[in-house]
C-alpha cells in the first residue's frame, strides 16, 4: 500500500515519542554510570557458578534444520522450504537444501522477537479480527488464510508481518513448535546483560517513560534488542491513531481489508524501526562521548556524591517510608507467600526435569559407548552432551513445566498483564543452568585436551567394559553441583519476580499521595551532582526497601521446604575445590573462637586451614543427608570428636546441635549479628565488633528485568539511616540455627579441564 501521505505525520509523531525517551535515557545513563563505578569500587560479587559454561556455546553450529511448507503471500501459494536455525536463533529459509549446501542467498530471514507461535488457524483468526475492530468476515466467506494440512504453524506479531507454515504430521508440528518457541525465547532476551551501564540505563528509561504515562506493571513487548523494544514502544502509541485514521478508508471484503491492514501495519513498523535506530544510535553515541568526563567526576567526587545521596535518601525515607510500610502491610505482605508458591512449584519442577534429562542422556551415552566400541565414540557423544541444553526438542519437557504458572486472582490484584515474562525468564535460566553439566562433565581419567572427532586420550584405552566405571564416576558430582547452581539461580529468580510484581503495584498505590511531593526534594541535590542523583530513582529505592525485607525472608523460609530442593545461602559445596587436600583435613573449626570476643589478626594460611567444607542443606525429613556433613565442625571445644568410621549423623543429632546453638545465642545477645543472606562466593565472614552496624543483605537486580533497581550496592543507600528511626534487625546464625562458613576460599568451584566448542560442523538434532 502507498503510505506517502502518512510519512510526514508518522515521522513527526515518532520523533516526539523518541525525544521524550531520549531525555529519560540521558538522565538514567548518568545514574547507571555512577552505580557501575561505585559497584566496581565498593561492590562484591554474588555466588559463583559451580559448573563451567561456554561463552559462545554453539558458535558455527546449526541448532535445527529441516523442511516445511511456507505460504507465499505474493502469489498466494504454498512452497516447500528448507529452514535452518543457526546459533543466533534466527530463522533462515532457503529454496531447498541444495541451495543451503551451495551457500546461495536465503529467501527469508526472520528475527522472531515479539512473535507468538500459534498452532491453530482459528486462534489466529481471532487475533486478526481483534486487531481491526468492526471488520469480521461473514459466515460463508473465505477466511484470510486456508491451510492445506491440519498442522499449521503461524508466527503472529501485533505490528510486524506474519509468517505461515505447515507440516504433514502432528509429531513434526510439535518439533517445529518447540524450535520456533526456542527462537522466540532467545530473541526476546535481546538486551545484553553484560552491559553494566547501557542496559540498566535503557530498561530504567523505558520504565520511567511508561510510568510517566501511568503505565505500571510488566510489559509483554519488552522483547528483542534495544531498537526493537523502542519500536514497540512507539507503535504502542501510534497504532490506535493509525487504526482510527486508516481503518475507515479500507475497501473490499473483510478478508481483503484484514490482509491490507496487516501489510500497512508491517510497513509502518519498518518505517518506525529505521527512524528509531537512527535516533537511538545518536543518543548512545552522545552519551558515550560524554562518558570519560562524567566518569572522571564520579571518581574524583565519589565521597561527596554518596554523602549527598544518603542525605537525600534519609529525607525521602522519613517522608515516604511510613506510608509505604502501611501499604506493604495491608496490600502486599499477606500475598507474598501465595505468589512465591505459585512461582516456585512450576519452576522447581522445570529444573528437576532438566536434571533428569541430563542424567538420562549421560546414562544412554555410557551404555552406547560400552556397546559400540569404547573410546572411539566418546568424543562424538561428549560433543552432543555439551549441546544438550540447546536442543529445543529434548528440553521442551522442561520448558513445558512453566506453562502451569498461573497467578489467577493475584494477577488482577497486582496488575500483571501476563505471566509470559516470568515463564520465559525461568526457561532461559533452565537453559543457562542446564548448559553447565554438559560442558563440565569430564569423566575421571579422561581429558578433553586434544579431543577430535573419533579420537580421545584416555588412560584406559581398552574396551567399553573398562571404560564404564570411569564414565559413571563423575556423574553424581556434576549433579550435586547442578543442584547448587539451580538453587542459587532459582532464589535469585524468585526475588526478582516478586520485585517485578510488587514494586509497580506499590508505586501505583503511593503515586496519588507521594509522587506530587517529590519535587520539593530536588533542592537537596547539589547542581554538580544532579547528573548522578535523581529524586525519582531514590524514591523508588525507598519503596523497594519497604518490601525487600519481607521478600528476602519469604525466599529464605522457602529453603526449609524440602519439596523445592533449595539450599541455604551459607552453603559451600562438598568437594568443591580440586585442591581441597591442601586445606588441612584434620583441623576442626572452633566456632566459639571464630564468632565470639574480639577479632584477632591471623595469617592467611591459618584462614585457609579453617576453610572446611560445610554443607547447610535442609533435609531433616530423611534418615541420611544427601551430602555428608562434617558434624565435628559444629561441636564446641572440648566435646568428644566423633569416630571417623561412624555413619553420617542422624536428624536427631542435627536437632541437638541446633538446640545447643540456640541456647548459646540466648546468652550472647551482645555479640554482633551475622547475616546468612547471599554471602559472596570467595569472601570471608567479617570479624565485627558490637559497635559495628549490621551488614546488609544484597538487593538483587537484573538489567532489563527488575522494576526497581537499587542505585548503589552499599549500606548507605540500602539500609535506613538512624535518623529515620527504621533500623532493621537481621537474624544471626545462632538465632536461625544455620551454619555460615567463616572462610569461603573453596566455595567458588570451577571444574578442571577445558571446554572447547566444536569445529563448525553442522549439527542436526
UniProtKB/TrEMBL annotation:
<feature type="compositionally biased region" description="Polar residues">
    <location>
        <begin position="745"/>
        <end position="757"/>
    </location>
</feature>
<dbReference type="InterPro" id="IPR011993">
    <property type="entry name" value="PH-like_dom_sf"/>
</dbReference>
<feature type="region of interest" description="Disordered">
    <location>
        <begin position="591"/>
        <end position="612"/>
    </location>
</feature>
<dbReference type="InterPro" id="IPR059060">
    <property type="entry name" value="Niban_1/2/3_dom"/>
</dbReference>
<feature type="compositionally biased region" description="Pro residues">
    <location>
        <begin position="639"/>
        <end position="650"/>
    </location>
</feature>
<dbReference type="Pfam" id="PF26089">
    <property type="entry name" value="PH_Niban2"/>
</dbReference>
<dbReference type="InterPro" id="IPR026088">
    <property type="entry name" value="Niban-like"/>
</dbReference>
<dbReference type="Pfam" id="PF26086">
    <property type="entry name" value="Niban2"/>
</dbReference>
<dbReference type="InterPro" id="IPR001849">
    <property type="entry name" value="PH_domain"/>
</dbReference>
<feature type="compositionally biased region" description="Polar residues">
    <location>
        <begin position="720"/>
        <end position="730"/>
    </location>
</feature>
<feature type="domain" description="PH">
    <location>
        <begin position="61"/>
        <end position="185"/>
    </location>
</feature>
<feature type="region of interest" description="Disordered">
    <location>
        <begin position="666"/>
        <end position="765"/>
    </location>
</feature>
<feature type="region of interest" description="Disordered">
    <location>
        <begin position="634"/>
        <end position="653"/>
    </location>
</feature>
<comment type="similarity">
    <text>Belongs to the Niban family.</text>
</comment>
<protein>
    <submittedName>
        <fullName>NIBL1 protein</fullName>
    </submittedName>
</protein>
Amino acid at each position: 500500500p502507498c503510505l506517502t501521505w502518512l510519512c510526514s505525520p508518522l515521522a513527526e509523531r515518532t520523533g516526539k515519542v523518541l525525544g521524550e525517551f531520549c531525555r529519560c535515557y540521558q538522565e538514567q545513563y548518568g545514574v547507571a554510570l555512577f552505580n557501575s563505578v561505585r559497584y566496581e569500587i565498593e561492590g562484591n560479587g554474588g555466588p559463583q557458578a559451580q559448573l563451567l559454561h561456554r561463552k559462545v556455546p554453539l558458535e558455527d553450529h546449526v541448532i535445527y534444520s529441516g523442511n516445511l511448507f511456507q505460504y507465499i503471500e505474493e502469489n498466494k501459494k504454498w512452497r516447500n522450504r528448507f529452514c535452518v536455525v543457526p546459533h543466533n536463533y534466527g530463522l533462515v529459509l532457503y529454496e531447498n537444501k541444495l541451495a543451503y549446501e551451495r551457500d546461495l542467498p536465503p529467501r527469508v530471514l526472520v528475527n522472531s522477537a515479539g512473535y507468538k507461535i500459534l498452532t491453530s488457524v482459528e486462534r489466529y483468526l481471532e487475533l486478526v479480527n481483534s486487531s481491526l475492530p468492526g471488520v469480521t468476515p461473514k459466515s460463508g466467506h473465505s477466511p484470510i488464510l486456508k491451510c492445506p494440512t491440519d498442522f499449521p504453524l503461524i508466527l503472529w506479531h501485533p505490528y510486524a508481518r506474519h509468517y505461515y507454515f505447515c507440516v504433514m504430521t502432528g509429531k513434526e508440528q510439535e518439533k517445529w513448535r518447540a524450535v520456533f518457541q526456542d527462537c522466540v525465547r532467545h530473541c526476546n532476551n535481546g538486551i545484553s546483560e553484560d552491559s553494566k551501564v547501557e542496559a540498566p540505563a535503557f530498561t530504567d528509561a523505558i520504565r520511567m517513560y511508561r510510568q510517566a504515562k501511568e503505565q505500571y506493571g510488566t510489559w509483554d513487548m519488552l522483547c528483542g534488542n534495544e531498537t526493537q523494544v523502542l519500536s514497540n514502544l512507539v507503535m504502542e502509541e501510534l497504532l490506535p491513531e493509525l487504526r482510527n485514521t486508516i481503518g475507515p478508508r479500507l475497501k473490499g471484503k473483510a478478508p481483503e481489508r484484514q490482509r491490507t491492514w496487516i501489510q500497512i501495519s508491517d510497513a509502518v513498523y519498518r518505517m518506525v524501526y529505521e527512524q528509531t535506530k537512527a535516533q537511538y544510535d545518536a543518543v548512545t553515541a552522545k552519551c558515550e562521548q560524554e562518558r570519560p568526563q562524567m566518569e572522571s567526576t564520579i571518581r574524583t567526587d565519589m565521597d561527596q556524591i554518596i554523602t549527598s545521596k544518603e542525605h537525600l535518601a534519609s529525607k525521602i525515607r522519613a517522608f515516604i517510608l511510613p506510608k509505604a510500610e502501611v501499604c506493604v502491610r495491608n496490600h502486599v505482605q499477606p500475598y507474598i507467600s501465595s505468589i512465591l508458591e505459585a512461582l516456585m512449584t512450576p519452576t522447581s519442577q522445570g529444573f528437576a526435569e532438566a536434571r533428569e534429562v541430563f542424567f538420562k542422556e549421560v546414562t544412554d551415552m555410557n551404555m552406547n559407548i560400552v556397546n559400540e566400541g569404547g573410546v572411539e565414540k566418546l568424543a562424538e557423544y561428549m560433543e552432543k552432551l555439551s549441546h544438550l541444553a540447546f536442543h529445543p526438542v529434548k528440553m521442551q519437557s522442561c520448558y513445558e513445566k512453566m506453562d502451569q504458572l498461573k497467578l489467577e486472582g493475584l494477577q488482577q490484584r497486582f496488575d500483571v498483564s501476563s505471566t509470559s515474562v516470568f515463564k520465559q525468564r525461568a526457561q532461559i535460566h533452565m537453559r543457562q543452568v542446564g548448559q553447565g553439566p554438559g560442558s563440565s562433565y569430564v569423566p575421571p581419567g579422561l581429558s578433553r585436551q586434544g579431543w577430535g572427532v573419533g579420537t580421545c586420550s584416555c588412560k584406559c584405552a581398552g574396551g567399553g567394559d573398562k571404560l564404564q566405571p570411569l564414565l559413571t564416576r563423575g556423574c553424581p558430582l556434576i549433579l550435586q553441583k547442578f543442584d547448587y547452581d539451580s538453587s542459587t539461580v532459582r532464589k535469585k529468580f524468585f526475588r526478582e519476580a516478586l520485585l517485578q510484581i510488587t514494586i509497580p503495584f506499590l508505586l501505583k498505590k503511593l503515586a496519588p499521595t507521594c509522587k506530587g511531593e517529590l519535587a520539593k526534594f530536588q533542592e537537596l541535590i547539589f547542581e554538580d551532582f544532579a547528573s548522578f542523583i535523581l529524586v525519582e530513582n531514590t524514591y523508588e529505592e525507598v519503596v523497594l526497601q519497604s518490601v525487600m525485607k519481607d521478600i528476602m525472608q519469604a525466599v529464605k523460609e522457602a529453603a526449609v521446604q524440602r519439596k523445592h530442593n533449595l539450599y541455604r545461602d551459607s552453603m559451600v559445596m562438598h568437594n568443591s575445590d580440586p585442591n581441597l587436600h591442601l586445606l588441612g583435613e584434620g583441623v576442626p573449626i572452633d566456632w566459639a573462637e571464630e564468632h565470639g570476643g574480639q577479632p584477632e589478626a591471623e595469617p592467611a594460611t591459618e584462614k585457609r586451614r579453617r576453610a572446611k567444607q560445610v554443607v547447610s542443606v535442609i533435609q531433616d525429613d530423611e534418615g541420611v543427608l544427601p551430602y555428608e556433613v562434617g558434624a565435628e565442625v559444629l561441636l564446641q571445644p572440648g566435646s568428644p570428636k566423633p569416630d571417623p568410621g561412624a555413619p553420617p549423623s542422624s536428624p536427631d543429632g542435627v536437632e541437638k546441635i541446633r538446640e545447643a546453638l540456640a541456647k548459646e545465642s540466648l546468652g550472647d545477645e551482645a555479640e554482633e549479628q551475622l547475616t546468612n543472606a547471599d554471602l559472596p562466593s570467595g569472601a570471608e565472614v567479617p570479624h565485627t565488633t558490637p559497635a559495628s552496624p549490621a551488614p546488609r543483605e544484597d538487593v538483587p537486580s537484573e538489567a532489563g528485568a527488575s522494576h526497581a533497581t537499587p542505585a548503589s550496592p552499599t549500606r548507605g543507600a540500602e539500609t535506613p539511616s538512624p535518623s529515620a528511626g527504621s533500623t532493621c534487625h537481621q537474624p544471626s546464625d545462632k538465632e536461625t540455627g544455620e551454619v555460615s562458613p567463616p572462610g569461603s576460599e573453596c566455595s567458588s568451584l570451577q571444574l578442571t579441564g577445558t571446554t572447547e566448542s566444536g569445529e563448525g560442523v553442522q549439527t542436526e538434532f
